[in-house]
Amino acid sequence: MADVAIRKPVLDGRLGGSANVRLTVAPAASRVALRAPMESLKALSSALGLSVPTAPKTSGRAGARSVLWIGPDEWLVIDEAGADLMAAFAGAGALHSATDVSHRNVAIIVSGPGAETTLAAGCPQDLSLAAFPVGAASRTILGKAEIVLLRTEADTFRVECWRSFSDYVFGLLAEAAGDAGH
Q1: Domains of the chain: total
Q2: Using CA atoms, how far apart are residues 115 and 176, in angstroms rounded to an integer?
Q3: Tens-place pLDDT, residues 23-59
Q4: Residue 117 and residue 58 in one domain
Q5: Does residue 4 form part of some domain?
Q6: I need a surface site. Which of 10, 22, 44, 173 has the fewest CB within 10 A?
Q7: Domain containing 156: what range?
Q8: C-alpha closest to that of 80 among 61, 57, 96, 104
Q9: Whole-number Å distance between alpha carbons of 52 and 32
Q10: Distance of alpha carbon 132 from alpha carbon 127, whole angstroms
């Protein structure tokens, strides 16, 4: 039996927050960066089992799977159940580009009554519920790091960042959560 190296997940065991905010590292998920022309979206939606959104700052969700609009022909697909998204795309029968980015990204869940304030400490975007409602998604920045932000509930956000920036992003969020707790 050969020795197998087991990689420790980035941010393994990290917790943070305050009385008003909880920071948790989301479990591993499958992720695909998707690019496609509009005429392919019907077939891709069928392959994914949910409608690929076409409007800025929106997302679609079915079960454990979400599709976030990132640009006019770009989406981030996240399957929290770890499904084989590449197999789903392989059978779509439509022009597209799908790149598995499961190991590139890490997600941090920011929840609680101070979640919006915590994120606003490093994100210039208007995160009020009126401007960024449940289901809203966007590529933006947090401090000096690019993130993809999804509002999953009125007081809960999913922050997707590259694993190489995850320590920085978690640290910034932890510091901001402490400030939001006062």
Answers
A1: 2
A2: 9
A3: 999 999 999 999 999 999 999 999 999 999 999 999 9
A4: no
A5: no
A6: 10
A7: 14-28+103-181
A8: 61
A9: 13
A10: 5
* Together in a domain, 72 and 24: no
152 CA to centre of own chain: 10
Cα–Cα distance measured from residue 20 to residue 10, given in angstroms and rounded to the nearest whole number: 25
The closest of 62, 146, 44, 61 to 104, measured between CA atoms, is: 146
Under 8 Å between Cβ of 95 and 40 = yes
CA–CA separation, 157 vs 150, rounded Å?
Answer: 6
* CATH number, domain containing residue 113: 3.30.1360.120
pLDDT per residue as tens digits for the range 154-170: 999 999 999 999 999 99
Cβ(143)–Cβ(168) below 8 Å: yes
Give backbone dihedrals phi and psi of 118, rounded to 5 degrees, phi first. Answer: -60, -50
Query: 175 and 111 in one domain?
Result: yes
**Closest C-alpha to 155, from 22, 66, 15:** 22
